[in-house]
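Morning run. Coffee first, then this:
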Amino acid sequence: MERGENTFQVWIQLGATENNWMTYGGELTPDAAVGSLVGAENRDGTSGVTVTDVDTDLAYVVQTSPPTAGGAVTFDYTIKGLLHGTWSTSATLRSDAINTIPIEVTKIRVR
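And here it is:
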């Protein structure tokens, strides 16, 4: 089985104006088993595009909208202090939608 070998570059611009550019180093040689697949998608795979007819004389730009806040969540909880003094409590949020576990620390005073 013949495998295609291709050369490309990806340029990533960070900061207030984020962009990505892709450019190819000559004609594309597809893999004999699967052909060529060129495109871009977001990090969780829920949005993307595939380019079937690639012009190697062009640079392709991936245009995205700026990041937006994911919203807010509010909840109440009750705690019971066993010892007098000032203490810290923490609440965490676990979600498959984010790659971190946010923690909210609150100081309380037990009298």
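The first strand starts at residue 8 and ends at 13. Good start to the day.
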